[in-house]
Input
Amino acid sequence: MREPASRADFEARLRRIGDERYHDKHPFHGLLHSGGCTMDQVQAWVINRYYYQSRIPMKDAAFMSRVEDPALRRAWRSRIEDHDGTAENEGGISRWLRLAEAVNLDPEYVASTRGVLAGTRFAVDAYVRFVRDKTLLEAVASSLTELFAPKIHSERIAGLLAHYDFADDNSTAYFQNRLKEAPKDVAFGLAWVLDHADTAEKQDACAAALTFKTDVLWSQLDALHSAYVAPARIPPGAWQPGEGQLEKAA
Output
């Protein structure tokens, strides 16, 4: 039997996964944040990323349906509210649709998920199944990509505001709010994983779960880059530039 790593060493192992594998290193984000994307490419990103955003609360609901500890359910519940919204909070999904409108996409078209790449669907649906079917510990560990999200959100806000005419406080509201919401979520999730991964085998499973989640995020961008960045190869059934645009006022 191997001894588990110390709490500090295990956390360092998890953070190394993000340093090596997080999708901030994908070339599509380099294009987006530097102003190198065409508006067609920005729209394709907004459409496909919406599918991920819309499935996050479904993933969290699947997780909570298996949790018997009321304290854990109470702590996790805010994640669904952050995305779906409440009477007092607009919610991340609505904020994302504001971004869609800002880039001249019909929010109803985006919310329909018509035209989402098959690669996006396969990756995101695999994540929902992972959280539904794996152990609670592995499910929580897979959420720890939030450790690395504040950096990419900050870079995205700055890059969009610097390079794109559509970008303003309204259209970047999703990312601005995640800068406040994600630290709360990750503080709880990281502490929970560090507390419960009390064997070497559990620590290995958590590291594998986090690696899987980085693969999910990277795969979405691979699909997007392959379809819409030169040489573009848009697969059958996927969004074609010009579809789902807002009607221009007469």
